[in-house]
Phosphate propanoyltransferase (Candidatus Vagococcus giribetii), 440 residues
Amino acid sequence: MEQYEEVLDRVLSILVEGNLSKNQQAPVTEIAKTIPVGISNRHAHLSRADIDSLFGKGYELTKLKDLSQPGQYACKECVTICGPKGVLEKIRVLGPARPVSQIEILQGDTFKLGIKGELRLSGDLNGTSGATMIGPKGSVQLTQGVIVAQRHIHMLPEEAKHFGVVDGEQVSIEFDGPRGGVLNNVIIRATANSGLECHIDTEEANALGVTSSTRIDILK
Amino acid sequence: MEQYEEVLDRVLSILVEGNLSKNQQAPVTEIAKTIPVGISNRHAHLSRADIDSLFGKGYELTKLKDLSQPGQYACKECVTICGPKGVLEKIRVLGPARPVSQIEILQGDTFKLGIKGELRLSGDLNGTSGATMIGPKGSVQLTQGVIVAQRHIHMLPEEAKHFGVVDGEQVSIEFDGPRGGVLNNVIIRATANSGLECHIDTEEANALGVTSSTRIDILK
């Protein structure tokens, strides 16, 4: 029954798309269902031990600004990431420290570094590529931890209920505009202490003409 | 009637998508309808006068390899592109010379250069940003000519007929895979002396998980 409703939803959205201009599209649904978009550039989450190695024993990261996810922040500190073929400089460190270091890069960076970029959700690091991180006080050779982030939507469990989705579900999201389109396989991450935001990276944002003021619809 | 068939096609493709695995998807339709994808990185087309200014009077570009569009080729030569905020080095020159110089960059490059990136088809340069080009023998200040290429599909008029599209029409194209999705507003360029190929840029390719072996379907 649920599948039938999904198909019906998609058929209806196509019919609406075919008969109405962008500006005429069901405004009520749009207000009820749009989600802000956060555009992620390359960044690194560091473990306490790796902060010690890169910036000095006991070094404390300096908060630059809070991010949309509660407790997460961008730091003043940057690191250099090295692969067998090239280097990425000025990679922003995000805080606070995590149990394990994780570097999130763009698909385009994988060619520059000369490493494979596994498409993964944050924290799912088994079997991913490694790289060398360089800081002002030393370097760390990661055996794994480099990922290309899989697009996802953070929300509270009650927001998931409102949107009719569940944690771990894959949905599609739609963008208007001259570079408009649909991105599939966007993972719902419905957890307590989340800020409602869809996370895509800069290549995805540029390809779809997305800016920081863009809001998206979930297409189930 | 044609519209009805289009809707039916899309409904059918959704039903097929929902019930069959990727490998089982209607092979006959796929063979008949898929189009190879060419991924464009940043590049420059130069006028004869600008080749003279950048590389020396009467300089002839050196062909490196032929491109998919008949008569077009990548050259050994590169130029540097400068904007008010930054520089792009090693921008590949494509030959042969054109009546007017045109620089095609990525949306992400526009932030680096500090210029506006108008989304345009090749040749549609009125009102676009300028930039300074630097070569081994001199520089040229373009007052306009910098674009972000609008995605498009080159084909012969008879191929357009086969695909049921016309020159100038905007279509959507679909990609499978973990970063799959749909890109809208892809312009059909149906002209004599064309090679069948869908042109997207590296940001679009990376966002959708596209490689040089990817083939796409037209969704009308």
Q: What stands out?
A: Residues 18 and 216 of chain A are 19 Å apart (CA to CA). Chain A has two domains: 34-38+151-219, 41-149. Helices of chain A lie at 2-19, 27-33, 48-55, 107-113, 157-163, 202-208. The two ends of chain A are 14 Å apart (CA to CA).
